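Ex. 9. Protein: 4-diphosphocytidyl-2-C-methyl-D-erythritol kinase.
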Amino acid sequence: MITFPNAKINLGLNIVAKRPDNYHNLETIFYPIPLEDALEVVDLPGKTDACLHISGLQIDGEPNKNLIIRAYDLLKASFDLPAVDIYLHKVIPFGAGLGGGSSDAAFMLRLLKDKYKLPVSEEMLLSLAARLGADCPFFLLNRPVLATGIGNEFTPVSLTLKNYYLVLVKPDIMIPTAKAYSLVKPEQPKVPLSEIVKKPVEEWKNLMTNDFEKSVFSHYPEIAEIKSRLYDIGAVYASMSGSGSSVYGLFSNLPELPDDLFPGSFVWQGECRY
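Predicted structure tokens for 4-diphosphocytidyl-2-C-methyl-D-erythritol kinase:
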């Protein structure tokens, strides 16, 4: 059985407070996009465990510690799962603020549930996903939501970007998440993101912000340059996703990109589905 885990972008991201547990409360909108990995599970007779095979983009870490294996182990602890070969073809860039690893894990849970017809309720599946990562349950919902808390509390939002196109650019830069958070001063936004997103997309440029951009751009001016270039070619709104390093632009019409516009970067274009 095969499935296609998709990425997400952040529409706005406000770091509103630091918590006693040293995590941060935030508000952001998770929006799913059709940039997809491919994930397949095949029975492995005569074996007792799962084996992960990765192709496509290279990702950090040991395969046996990947979130996909952790998802398999979570379900195997409660159900008699067979040994499997797992094939992951990685397309979503790693360390880009796109949630690729979380999406792979969430889709793995659902794939195993469906393939082996496990008696797992949607509530249980969401609970298991939350044990893998704060944003993992989002990829089971896979619709635009306002995320609050540490990014683990979801409220549906009335939002559609179906008339827009997306250009996503990921430079060859890795930004440690802990470092990104350490450089941000938490504060309550003047206007809640839930109100800003109700306004026309063309007004977001002066209203919707990503709190990570100020510090990230000062340390990595080439990321700021990507955002500027997206506006230069006609984006109605552009922003860094999450804590970076990818930057996206929303366009009324799909632009033609010169070959030398984003040298050395991963570039993806697609139509918004939601």
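Check your answer against this statement. The chain has two domains: 2-155, 160-271.
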